[in-house]
Amino acid sequence: MENNENCKIELDDIGFVLKVLGGKWKLYILTSLYFEKKRFKQLERDVIGISPKMLIKELKELEAVGIVNRHTINTVPITVEYSLTENGLTLKPILGQMKQWAVQFKQQLKSDNQ
Questions:
Q1: Calpha distance 30→41 (Å, rounded)
Q2: Does the UniProt entry include the keyword Cell membrane (predicted)?
Q3: 26-57 burial, b if ≥16 CB within 10 A, otherwise e?
């Protein structure tokens, strides 16, 4: 019975991660912000294929949960920069591990198909 409860807790935690980071674009956005703060147009160029409307939506969701920070600079026209918050920065090692896993898994798939 305890294993079943542990499994439920782990699945609940995974569900939470997917709720916060799930979707087609969030990991692309976070990866772009992994290296430095970016303006909206820079993010739009980095995340190939995302529409401006969808980018705004995803950024608002990431900002609402406290992973992305939106900083407005009083210029003409107004400049908006996005960066990872302290909570967002805690994702850096996870994103790095995901990249390592992807590289290794792609190599394995490639060697399996030869």
A1: 15
A2: no
A3: bbbbbbbbeeeebebeebbeebeebeeeebee
Per the listing, tokens 């799930």 go with: 22
Query: Using an 8 Å Cβ cutoff, are 36 and 78 in contact?
Result: no
Asked if residue 65 lies in contact with residue 86, where contact means CB atoms within 8 angstroms, the answer is no
For 3-13, write each residue's pLDDT tens digit: 777 777 778 88
Cα 107 to Cα 45: distance, rounded to the nearest angstrom: 28
- In whole angstroms, what separates CA 91 from the centre of its chain? 8
Contact 43, 34 (CB under 8 A): no
Phi and psi, residue 12, nearest 5°: -65, -40
Higher pLDDT, 10 or 15: 15
The domains of the chain, with CATH numbers, are 24-112 (1.10.10.10)
